Amino acid sequence: MKKFITVFLAIVTMPAFADNAYNPMFGNNNKNSIALYVSQGTGPGSLFKLVDPFLWEFEPMTNLMLQYSQPLSIFRLPSRMNLTFVQNLGYGHDRGLSFMAIGVSWDVSIIDWRGFYLGIGIGPYMRDSRDRYVESRLVFGERVFIGKNIGNDWRIELFTQHFSNGDFTEINRGFNFTGIAINYSF
């Protein structure tokens, strides 16, 4: 276990290496970004709910995320490494689904075309509680997003995100969210 923690911390604290190539998630010469994500719960269930809006079941949950990012290159693709603070707010009959979390994730821009970019991301998150959707405190977040550059320093993204524990425990219904993000790079 100590080796796993050492390797994990080495990866997380490793500086973000990026070449001088243009990164659509940062703009020209920007090495940092801060983003605010706001999303609505689209029901528990599998990862496939990310890409099929006909499966979405809107729920009384709102998810807020504050994210700090640095540019990175993964397999020569423009990427970013993120530190994210998460606050999920369940209300009404789903009040017991509120949680806070902190996580590290990596996003990769797969397509960059005329100011638009399409990407995917993944990373581990540690929550402060367990609930009836996911029995563990450790969850993994997968994200699909479409972004648009609004000048060199600002971006807006539409995204959908899934949190679950990969069936490590018996209870793993997962959380799904869809929303919008505003990103400032500097």
What's the short story on this structure?
The chain is mainly beta and 186 residues long.
What features would you describe in this structure?
- The protein has an 8-stranded antiparallel barrel.
- The chain has one domain (29-185): Beta Barrel (Porin).
- It is mainly beta.
- It has 1 helix and 8 strands.
- The protein has one helix at 2-13; strands spanning 33-41, 61-74, 77-90, 99-113, 116-127, 138-149, 154-164, 175-185.
- The protein is globular.
- 6% of the residues lie in helices and 53% in strands.
- A hairpin with a 2-residue loop joins β2 (61-74) and β3.
- Residues 12-19 have low confidence and may be disordered.
Number of helices: 1
Q: Say what the CATH topology is.
A: Porin
Main sheet overview: 8 strands, antiparallel, barrel
Average per-residue pLDDT, rounded, comes to 89
Task: Write down the domain tally.
Answer: 1
Helix-strand topology string: HEEEEEEEE
Shape: globular
Query: In percent, how helical is the residue content?
Result: under 10%
Helix and strand composition category: mainly beta
Q: Runs with pLDDT <50, length 5+? A: 12-19
How many strand units? 8
Rg, Å, rounded: 16 Å
- Beta-strand level of the residues, as a percent range? over 45%
**Largest sheet, order of strands side by side?**
1-2-3-4-5-6-7-8
CATH class: Mainly Beta
Features:
single chain, mainly beta, Porin, 53% strand
